[in-house]
Each structure stands twice: as C-alpha cells, then as structure tokens.
Amino acid sequence: MKRAYFCKFFALIAALCFGLTGCKKGSKGLTPIPGRTGNGGIPGAQPGGPANPGTERVPTIPDGGADGTKLVTTDGRTPMPDRYDPANYNQDRSQFREQTVYFDLDKYTIKSSEQPKIQVVASFLSGESKTMLEIEGHCDERGTAEYNRSLGERRAQAVREYLIFLGIPGERIHTISFGEDRPANPGHGEAAWSKNRRGEFILLRPKN
Amino acid sequence: MKLSKILFGLIVRVAAILSCTQLGMAQQPTEDRLYIPKHASNTKPIPVTLSGFSGDADSVLRYDLEVQGCEIVSGDGAQYSVSGANSGQVQGELRDLVTKAVLLNNRYSGGSLRSQSHNLADDVIEKITGKPGISRYKIAFKGQAGSSTEIYISDFDGFNPVPVTRDGALVAAPCWVPHKRILYYTSYKSHYPDIYSHDLSSGERKPVARYPGLNSSAAISPDGRRVAMILSKSGSPDLYVADADGTNLKQLTQTREDESSPCWAPDGRKICYVSSAGGIPGLYVISLDGGPPKKLRTIGSGRASEPDWSPDGKFIAFTAMRREFDICVVPAEGGDSITLTAGEDPSWGVNSRTIIFSRRFKGKQVLSLLDVPTKRFKDVSQNLGSCSQPSWAK
Questions:
Q1: Interchain CB distance below 8 Å, B236 and A149
Q2: What domains does chain B contain, in order, with CATH numbers?
Q3: N or C: which end of chain B has fewer CB within 10 A?
Q4: Residue B45, CB half-sphere, CA atoms under 13 Å: how many?
C-alpha cells in the first residue's frame, strides 16, 4: 500500500508540473507528453505510453484510491465521474462568482494568478461534503465552434485536476463545455475576449 | 495553382432582388450577389447566356449556374446558351455556341417550379463540365431563431428551411449519413452535450454517445457504418470511433491536449482531425489500420481547424484561424495551403468543386456557396438570425 500511495503522489506531482505551468521541456521523472517532446508533434503516438523511448515512465495508478477516488492516469489525465442528475441539485452560480478562472488564448494551463481562486473553492468544498461542483469551460470567438467546444472542456478539466490535487474527490467535480456559445461579454476585441476565456464554478446543492 | 492570399471583395451585382413565395411561406428578400475576389483566379468562369425564363425559374437557373462555375453574360463572348420557358413546366435547351450543337433539350414535370429548375441547371452543368450538378442535395445547418439554436435542413440554396429540432437547447455540428436521410448532431437538451442520431423520415431520435464530459463533433464514415467523435470521458477531449449506433467504441488518440472536428477520407481508412498536441491547433491524419497519427502540413496556415476531405480524396478544405477566419484547401497529403476566401467551417459538395461555408456579415453568420476553381461565392437565402456549421448531404 505504501508503494501505491507513493506512486499516486508521484504521478500527481508530475501531472501538475506539466498541467499547471505548461513547461515544455521534459525533466527527469516527468511524464513525457506526446507531441511536446520534439517528435514532430504527433499526438497519441504511443497510446498509453511515453513518446520518447528511454525516458522514465511514471508508474500506473490503479483506479480508486483509499478514498475511492479515481485519480490520475499515467499521462496525468483524470477520468470523468458518472454524471449527476440535474433534477436533484440546485445550481448556485453566485457562491463562486468572484472565483472565475481566466485563461490565455488557445491555452488550458492555469496561470499562477488564478490558482488562489481555485484554492478558495477547494477550501469551501472540503467543509461542505454534501455539495458537488460543476465547472463550465468557455472560450473567446477567435477559435472555430467545435475547436472551442473541445478547448472549453479541456479548460474545465484542467481546473478539475487542480481541485483534485488540492484534495477534493474527483467524484464531486463535473465539467461542461459551452465553447464560445455563452460569452460573458458579447463584444469583439481583447477586452471582451479576455473575459470570455474562462472557467466558471457552479455549486451544486442537493435538494433534500 | 499559385493564388494570392489577400482577397478584397469586389461586389458585382448580377441580378435583381429575388422575392418569391414558396409553399405559402414568404421568403425574405435576398441579396443575390456574386462576390468575386479582387485577385480572382487563373480559372475563368464559363460564359453562358440565359433567355426565355421568368420569375423563380430564371432566378434559380441564374443562381445554380453561377455557383457552379458559370457566368451569365448578355451575349458577346458566350460559350453556351441556355434558353427555354417555364409556362406550366420548365423546358430548356443547352446549345454550344461554338459548334452550334444542341447538347440538351429537356422538359421537366412533377415537383415544384424551383425543383424543376434545379434539375435543368444540374443537367446543364453535367453536359458542360462532365460532372453531376449539386443543386439537388440538401444541406443541414445550425440556425438561430430568437435566443435558441436548432438544427435545420433546407435546399442547397437555403430555400424551404425546415427545423429538425425544437428543443430550445444548444445544438451543434450536424452531419449527414451518406445516402440517407439521417443526421447526427450534438444537443444539450439533457443539460449535457450528447450526440444523437435523428432519422428525418421516421422522426426517431437515438442517443449515440452520452458519456461523462463532452460528446461532440460526430462524423459518419463514407459507408455509413462508423462514427468518429470527440469524447472527454477519459479526462481530455480525444478522438474515438464506434459503430454507427455508438457501440464497439475505440479510442484513437490519448493526448493531454484537446482534439476536435474529425472527418473521413473517402476510402474510410483514414480520419483527419484537429489536435493541439503540437502546441498550436493543427491538422493530423490517423489511419484506422493502425500506426501513429501524422501531422498534415498546411504550409502558410497555422492554427488550422475544421477539416473536410473532398469526396474525390484529393483535397482537404479547412479553416485557418488567423486574425479573421479563412477557408483554405491543401492537398490531402499535405503541402502548400491555398486561401480561398474569408469564412469558416467548409463542407464539400459531391462534385468536389463547390464548398458551402459560413461567413460573418453584418454582425451575424450567413451560409455561402464557394466555387473553388474560380474562388467566387454567393450567399444562400436566409431568413433566420444566424446560420452556421453547414453540412452538405452526399
């Protein structure tokens, strides 16, 4: 068991080093990310494994830790939990209004300026164990519609990964992407776009 | 094939305002304009005279011939003449003005005046170009009516629009099943973005993919048996394929970055899609026979998105996400990209020559038909708020 925990911790750190800082160069012990390791940008070149032979591979994490949480896979991704039934929860959009996370163009990395907001959300959630969270991912209009739908999802999932790192069980955190369909600011120009590249937190309170 | 990248629209008015009443529904007056990019092309349109038709028949023929590479001229220099009448039914004759030969003399019955006229236009095009016309193929698109978006189908010129959904929910990315009256699309009607198949004949709608996270961008294989789609259930949006009903799911990419917008090669053995795995979004091709994906070189167009493989297999049209969006084509094996015109989300017609796409105009999106060799385009008729994500039936 000790070994399993060590592996889990190790994989988390590896995942976060990449996912949260966006560093491009691999370092020892870091999961190599296909397509960013100088192999010509081939995604998924070797499914389930590193793209660079000879680079150390992070051990596989079995599904379900001691807390029942599916954590990270070898490449740092976090499988999604089963869906919740929207009919059984009230959606509270005001609780975390000040914590909306903003992103750079084409990016899903979480900037250091945005991390304290997610820490506020994590601290609230850890004290309210019956609540769940939905993270909405949004984009500006400088991407095409379906590109943005995928990017919005990836942004929401990056925020989710950070919350899991902070100790919130993945089962409580859901994501939904609206791409560019629901801009916060309908204007055109960087002032509007910077407000539209965002992740919003919706607190889900059980109705009973 | 070397063509200028910078296009300034030069608007040539070629016809009077259309107005017509179809099936009792008033169609909005349409700006029937042909847009000719300033540095047009090395392929010249074919000059054709048109005489004897009136009303809808005249406007349909004019429109159909012009979006398929012809230019209606008054007489001098014309290569072909199309003459006829539309009293009761449409009758038309195509004559080669050089050889004086009559290439076609047809009379049409049944259907509406518009559909008879479309049939004549397609027959004329087939005689002139040797390739079947495309005006009888339907289009599907995302349309905005008030604050909600729905999936619509219509004639290729935008006439006779019919809503397919009435859910009042967000919808996205309609895609035709080849040779069938079945659409796949994404709908948020369950709260979540899910993929549905929708039989337009029976009205039956079935969920195809409703996994945790994102389910979107369905693309049906040319044989209609498989569906490519983007799912995020494993923690990042990745490319998957499944049988057409969603079973037998197989994951094709496993990247931390997001994938989107798959399309099929006409042989059904390869899929082109968008991935950000290279740092910026670009096109990749993966073989279903195995092996790693390969980056498709789109020289001159970084930030590439929304690929669509031409039915003849030779080209991939895509959207270059520059300061504005541009419709581009690149050889299917990769290479220099050619910018055609400003716009997004291209979908090829069966002739591998005409592309339907959307463009931003006066604060909304309109659908437009582009003749690739001449780079000329014409907007389709539209009386909805905003139309986008066109898919052309094949």
A1: no
A2: 9-129 (3.40.50.10070), 139-392 (2.120.10.30)
A3: N
A4: 25
CA of B31 vs chain A CAs: smallest distance (Å): 26
Question: Is A38 near chain B, with CB under 8 Å?
Answer: no
CB-CB under 8 Å, B345 with A144:
yes
Q: Identify the closest residue of chain B to A37 by CA–CA distance.
A: B278
Going by C-alpha positions, the residue among B40, B151, B59 that lies closest to residue B373 is B40
Neighbours of B45 (CB within 10 A): 21
To which residue do tokens 């369909």 refer?
Answer: A181
Question: What ipTM was estimated for this complex?
Answer: 0.88
The span from the CA of A162 to the CA of A171, in Å, is 14
pLDDT tens-place string over residues B169-183: 999 999 999 999 999
Contacts of A75 in chain B (CB under 8 A): 254-256
Task: Calculate the average pLDDT of chain B.
Answer: 89
What are the extents of the domains in chain A?
Answer: 1-78, 86-206
Question: How high is the mean pLDDT of chain A?
Answer: 74
Structure tokens of A204? 């889900």
pTM recorded for the entire structure: 0.82
- B332, B265 in Cβ contact below 8 A? yes
Per-window interface: A 135-164 vs B, CB < 8 A: 142-147, 149-151, 153-154, 157, 161
What is the rounded CA–CA span in Å between residue B387 and residue B356? 12
In the structure, what pLDDT confidence band is assigned to residue B32 with cuts at 50, 70 and 90?
Answer: low
- Substitution target from B256, B260, B324 for chain A, most A beta carbons within 10 A: B256
Test mutation, B142, B185, B258, chain A, max A CBs within 10 A: B258
CATH of A86-206, one of 3.40.50.2000, 3.40.50.720, 3.30.1330.60, 3.90.1600.10: 3.30.1330.60
Q: Which of A79, A143, A144 is facing B233, going by the closest CB pair? A: A79
pLDDT tens digits for B319-358?
Answer: 999 999 999 999 999 999 999 999 999 999 999 999 999 9
Distance from C-alpha of A143 to C-alpha of B319, rounded to nearest angstrom: 10
Pair B156, B137: CB distance under 8 Å: yes
Q: Name which of A21, A23, A42 to mutate to probe chain B: the one with the most chain B Cβ atoms within 10 A of its Cβ.
A: A42
